[in-house]
Amino acid sequence: MRYLGLLMLGVFVGTLLCVAVRKTTNWSDSVKVVVALIGAALSGVVLIFIDKLPGIAAGEAVFMYPVGLAWSLLWLYADQAIENVKSADPNQKLVGRLHLAGMGVGTALVLLLLLSESFRELLPP
Fold first, then answer.
1. 70-96, pLDDT tens digit by residue?
2. Chain Cα centroid distance, residue 120
């Protein structure tokens, strides 16, 4: 359960940060961008607090937090990938297809990390 919990925490924080950046339409309004960047920089502090809670130790599951951050980034831009696949430009179509393929591979890897103890043991320490 630690793996799933830290993955979902990463997905939650990553989703908040990505939505904040996507909602920024005027890049001269730097407050939103700075807040998002500070949030990204300080989001790892959450793991320190989790380790300090009595009876809870993240241990080796801590690597699932950045996996969740990356996974949320892939999925939040899925709409852009679909728009790129629909484009008339062959380069944009290729980028969209690669993004969708990356989403599939990334989801398969996340599921392997969550569900297979033997797959996690293959990872370097």
1. 888 888 888 889 999 999 999 999 999
2. 18
Q: How far apart are CA 102 and CA 10, in angstroms?
A: 18
Distance between CA 13 and CA 68 in Å, rounded?
A: 9
Structure token pair of residue 13:
């924080």
Distance (Å, whole) CA 76 – CA 98: 15
Please report which helix (H) or strand (E) contains residue 119, including its range: helix 117-122
Enclosing domain of residue 70: 2-122
The count of domains in the chain is 1
Name the packing angle between helices 30-42 and 2-22 (round to 10°): 170
Token couple for 46 = 């959450």
Report pTM: 0.71
- The residues of the chain scoring below 70 in pLDDT are 1, 27-30, 32, 41, 55-58, 125
d(CA 89, CA 10): 34
